[in-house]
Write a structure and sequence with these properties.
By secondary structure, the protein is an alpha+beta fold. The protein folds into 2 domains: 175 residues, NADH Oxidase (3-Layer(aba) Sandwich); 38 residues. It is built from 11 helices and 4 strands. It has a 4-stranded antiparallel β-sheet with strand order 1-2-4-3, with helices on both faces. α2 packs across α6. It is globular and about 55 Å long. This is Oxygen-insensitive NADPH nitroreductase.
């Protein structure tokens, strides 16, 4: 096992940061690593909004559901699918296809993960902020995002002021299928559920007693931002 693999396997979401700022050189290294990620058809349809104005950070923290670390992290980036740049280059570009939405979402995720892994390898920590999609219209307005630019998620980065345990992932046997899709192994799922229940008990001092199955049931038994379809289409995505 090498240092790269150790960094990947030790990933934890960090939600408390010190007040230490990030140097320009370090920030640029992380951004360069993000930009080096794979790009479908080399279309490079991602833009990153670096938010440095405190008032905007405070509003974004509010829009994301009161996640105060959006305002306190050393750096905060918003990852966006961006075909506006392409339209400026090629005004006759055929946009609005669902495939382009998928390409942009995949490329943005690859880029962000590259950046986060680079940051973690350099002693920093971070957390993704999908909560920006609670109020995508307000985020787009605040950041002056034109049509054909879609804000997907944010990324807080900074020096960790906490060291949480690694959250156990689903075992490989429940994720990796060979040659064809396999039915769910309920026995292995039950074992994982117990593992997660113990993890939450230890993490919260016994105040949270929940399995993974119970957690996803609670999440998937309610609406999942039903307004997103209208917003996505309003930004010129997934129209056809």
């Amino acid at each position: 096992m090498n240092q790269t693999i150790e960094t990947i396997l030790q990933h934890r979401s960090i939600r408390k940061f010190t007040a230490e700022p990030m140097s320009e050189q370090l920030r640029n290294t992380i951004l360069d690593c993000a930009i080096a990620a794979s790009s479908s058809t080399f279309i490079q349809c991602v833009s990153i909004i670096r938010v440095t104005e405190h008032d905007k950070r405070v509003l974004l923290a509010e829009y994301a559901g009161g996640q105060e670390y959006v305002a306190s992290a050393a750096e905060f980036f918003v990852f966006c699918v961006d075909f506006n740049r392409h339209q400026q280059i090629c005004p006759e570009a055929k946009l609005g296809f669902a495939e382009q939405t998928l390409i942009g979402a995949v490329d943005a995720a690859l880029m962000a993960q590259n950046g986060l892994l680079a940051a973690e390898s350099l002693g920093l920590g971070g957390v993704y902020i999908g909560g920006l999609r609670n109020n995508p219209d307000k985020v787009a307005s605040l950041l002056s995002l034109p049509k054909h630019v879609l804000p997907l998620f944010g990324l807080c980065l900074g020096y960790p002021a906490q060291s949480p345990d690694v959250k156990p992932r689903l075992p490989r046997s429940l994720i990796v299928h060979e040659n064809s899709y396999a039915p769910l192994d309920r026995e292995k799922l039950a074992s994982y559920d117990q593992h997660i229940r113990e993890y939450y008990r230890n993490r919260t001092g016994g105040s949270k007693n929940m399995s993974w199955s119970e957690q996803i049931s609670g999440t998937l038994n309610k609406e999942a931002r039903p307004f997103m379809k209208q917003f996505i289409e309003g930004q010129g995505f997934s129209l056809k």
